[in-house]
Design goal:
It is built from 13 helices and 22 strands. By secondary structure, it is of the alpha/beta class. Helix 1 (about 15-25) packs across helix 3 and helix 2 (about 45-60) packs across helix 6 (about 180-190).
């Protein structure tokens, strides 16, 4: 049984309020760089985008507690949607960009999405074509007035990109829906939001059956992000290279949310992981931190451009998602210039991180363990009878504390289980 330190108090604020604080503290510093889109925002510019978008969503009729899905790759619009929905009390539903039409329909129906933000195309996925196939009524619907048999709750589809599609609103057009009444309504909503309100649903397949929607509050994920950032020693001078997907907790919480708690910049090298793009982004943007699963680090170290890549700006980062071989950790420290790289462990249901190594832990500890219990978290390892086992014995890990999800959306049976 282990219990995390409690000397640093938990944050008691909503994600929207955290964005406002970030703008107040670091307004002129860079907040977000999407290298592949050639877009960069200061915190003030980013905060303005978030405000405009939140008011636009309110103007379109979205209410606090409504679910809005996002089915897209790593683009700046993802981050704006993430924080704008939180500001308006709308529950953001993360959808895997690799999903096909039937999987998309399942998650939209499972949580009753009234809106969907969609990408256009990526690799073999033509999102627009898949949506028209799933929702044949879309082509004859006025934007925001969809009534589709396959997903009865869905009313509004918002698409990325400059082109237009029948029945869909463009992402760039949403702020225009915000009139003075919508802005007043947004200001009222912000005063009513509670840090313990659900604000995000992340689907997790677990080991069996259909995906389950882990329901997470502002309090869950904002505090988890805060302590990840503290463990990494982040300041507003840091620049986080985020090649891990935003739809997953690693990118969304470990990347975007961490950044607003400490003023670090979010850097997206490409829509999805591509080792050459990551190496170029690190050099161009002078990134100080890098995230990835072990296979991503292997791909970077093995890339033909690595020999000439300028990675000396790096110092720290997170490797997670699978055990890290000791030789890989040694190469990350020496060749990738990451002496303070950490290992993190957790699950979607725990916001996600419950254990993380420290930046100065010996390399052997960083690869041979999952680090130390996070602040304000408790964990124990139990046998089949629920009794805590002795150190060194195997068992099931159980976690409790602020970081545990509220439950699986609309699934009392799985939540109880």
């Amino acid at each position: 049984y282990v219990c995390g330190a409690t000397d640093t108090p938990l944050l008691d604020l909503t994600i929207g309020r955290a964005v406002t604080q970030a703008v107040e503290r670091w307004g002129t510093q860079e907040a977000l760089v999407s290298v592949h889109q050639q877009v960069r925002f200061t915190w003030r510019e980013f905060g303005d985008r978030v405000n405009e978008y939140a008011a636009g969503l309110v103007g379109l009729g979205f209410q606090p507690g409504d679910r809005l899905g996002i089915w897209a790759t790593n683009v700046w619009e993802w981050a704006v949607a993430q924080f704008a929905t939180a500001q308006a009390g709308i529950v953001l539903v993360n959808i895997n960009p690799a999903y096909r039409g039937n999987e998309l329909a399942y998650v939209l129906n499972k949580v009753g999405c009234s809106g969907l933000i969609t990408g256009v195309a990526f690799k073999t996925s033509d999102y627009i074509a898949m949506l028209h196939e799933l929702l044949p009524e879309l082509g004859d619907s006025a934007p925001g007035q969809l009534a589709a048999a396959a997903v009865p709750t869905l009313r509004t589809v918002i698409r990325l990109g400059d082109e237009t599609s029948r029945g869909m609103l463009n992402f760039a057009a949403v702020p225009a829906a915000a009139d003075a009444a919508a802005r007043r309504r947004l200001a009222e909503i912000e005063t009513t939001l509670d840090p313990h309100d659900p604000i995000n649903i992340q689907f997790t397949s677990g080991t069996t059956g259909t995906p389950k929607g882990a329901t997470l509050s502002h309090h869950n994920i904002l505090n988890n992000a805060y302590f990840i950032g503290r463990t990494l020693g982040y300041t507003a001078a840091d620049r986080i290279c985020i090649p891990v997907p935003l739809y997953h907790c690693f990118g969304m919480v470990g990347g975007n949310l961490v950044a607003i708690t400490c003023g670090a910049a979010m850097v997206y090298p490409e829509e999805a992981f591509e080792p050459g793009a990551v190496l170029r982004a690190i050099a161009q943007e002078r990134c100080t931190s890098l995230y990835g699963v072990p296979t991503m680090f292997v791909a970077l170290l093995d890339h033909p451009d690595f020999a000439v890549a300028d990675v000396v700006s790096l110092r720290t980062g997170v490797m997670a998602g699978a055990p890290c071989p000791i030789e890989l950790m040694k190469q990350a420290v020496s060749r990738l210039h990451m002496p303070q790289i950490t290992i993190a462990y957790g699950m979607t249901e725990t916001s996600p991180v419950s254990f993380q190594s420290r930046r100065d832990d010996p390399v052997e500890k960083r690869v041979g363990t999952v680090g130390r219990i996070h602040p304000h978290a408790e964990a124990k390892i139990v046998d089949d009878g629920g009794e805590t086992v002795a150190i060194g014995e195997q068992g099931e890990i159980m976690t409790r504390g602020y970081l545990v999800m509220q439950g699986y959306w609309n699934d009392a049976e799985k939540t109880a289980e």
